[in-house]
Amino acid sequence: MKKATALLLAALIVLTLGACAKGGNIVGTWIDDYNAISFLEDGTVLWAERGSASGSFGSADVMHYSVSGDKLTFKEENETYTFKVQGDKLTINFDGESAVFTKVTEDLNPFKK
Predict the structure, then answer these.
(1) Is 46 part of any domain?
(2) Domain residues for 56?
């Protein structure tokens, strides 16, 4: 019984790592020159824009997302994009273009209150 449980747990770990490996772990807060986006573990995403590269962020829109491999779906928009996480960079591809975001630490998080 213990051996079967251990094998089952090992299989689950391998499947989980394989599912995460394609796109990467998207959870966290990311910024580019004009946007801040925060993916929460519960499937909520906060998105805020700022008027200029050095300006402050406006109020956040609250949406929901799901991830499957390297596919990112914003549920309210019913739009699916491909994404990739490499180190502290998140690239989201849409309409033949790409947006590159940098992961920020909690002290730089514009959504932090």
Answers:
(1) yes
(2) 23-106
| Token reading at 83 | 């994404």
How far apart CA 66 and CA 78 sit, in angstroms, is 11
Question: Which residues, in sequence order, are CB contacts of 31 under 8 Å at separation 6+?
Answer: 37, 101, 102, 104, 108, 110
Give the chain's end-to-end CA distance (angstroms, integer). Answer: 49
Residue 9 counted as domain residue: no
Residue 8: which pLDDT band, with cuts at 50, 70 and 90? very low
Task: Kindly report, residue by residue over 20-54, the tens digit of the pLDDT.
Answer: 434 679 999 999 988 999 999 999 999 988 876 66
Residues 14 and 9: their CA atoms lie apart, in Å, by: 9
